[in-house]
Design goal:
two-stranded antiparallel sheet; mainly beta
Length: 83
Amino acid sequence: MQISTNKVVSIDYTLTDNQGNIIDSSKGGEPLAYIHGIGNIIPGLENALVGKKVGDKLQVSVPPAEGYGERNDDMVQTVPREM
């Protein structure tokens, strides 16, 4: 079965930055499960997964516009650790 709209999909993933440092990974845990095509994951990744099937492997580089958007330093907030 190929990945398409309204299908439940589970993926194992490793998220890295531009230098190859691991930011997040499903390794050692459960795969990420989501319903495809309804906006549950960033558009750049969702678009790259269309038509893939069990066992397919891919490497995806998502530009900011297809992820969470360009960085805006005016929106950065500093939150104290103490409560």
